[in-house]
Specification:
InterPro entries: Lon_proteolytic, Ribosomal_Su5_D2-typ_SF, Ribsml_uS5_D2-typ_fold_subgr
Domain Lon proteolytic: 153-236
Number of strands: 12
Distance between the termini: 67 Å
Strand content: 15-25%
Shape: globular
Protein name: Lon proteolytic domain-containing protein
Keywords: Signal
Radius of gyration: 24 Å
Order of helices and strands: HEEEEEHEHHEHEEEHEHEH
Signal peptide: 1-35
Largest sheet: 6 strands, mixed
Mean pLDDT: 86
Length: 262
Amino acid sequence: MLTRHSRLRNLAIGAAPVVALLAVACFAPLPFAVAQPGPTANVLGNDEGKPVITISGAPTRPTTGQLRMTTIVATGPDQDVGISDVVDGWFRTDRAVMPRDSVYPGGGSEKEISAHNQAQMKQSQDAASVAALGYLGLSPDKVKVELHLADVGGPSAGLLFTLGIIDKLNGNGSGGDLTGGRTIAGTGTISDSGDVGAVGGVALKTQAAARDGATVFLVPKAECSDAESELPKGLRLVPVTTLKGAVSALQALQKGDPVPSC
């Protein structure tokens, strides 16, 4: 039978490994990435002194309003994330803690991931040009589109690039701006045929949009619930599944007609 003194001593000895494990957990890197709202860019404007959208072979029109593509920024694949970062992220609405493999599914070094993201951006830009010209019935052999946006990778700006091309060439189809003079933000991939795809991180992107003055956010319909989870006050969600639907929604918004909602 243990005396009280012996029990305390054994308790202290027994607790030592637990304390050691907790200490290791506090300082050891964890397989997570922490993301937060990133910069936005007006695709109707300039980036680094150069127009984001340059079109040749067809007349373009001046535009008002803004079409802002949105981003998130995340800790790098080689950056350590500790338990304090994870706990902090869980309790903040402007942070998201995600498994590192979901942010960087292909693995690889930071340089390799950057190259992959740039390749996805190029594919997105090519698809945006094809989708926009196809929507307007213009030949890609006659009309050339050049897209420039530095330091941004991935495919999620596809929808906004496409809408920007349409606005510069055709506006709302009735002589006005597709934006109606508003600051419109959004996210979504685009296919050559005009289908809009999900991208992830929309709850953080809505915060970036509101921070930079947007009042309307175009969101892939499949991600409505994620977008609503931390929706900033004053930001209206408009779900879309196709380019045609996105253009129709923006036209209806200007006319005061019913607009889809999440």
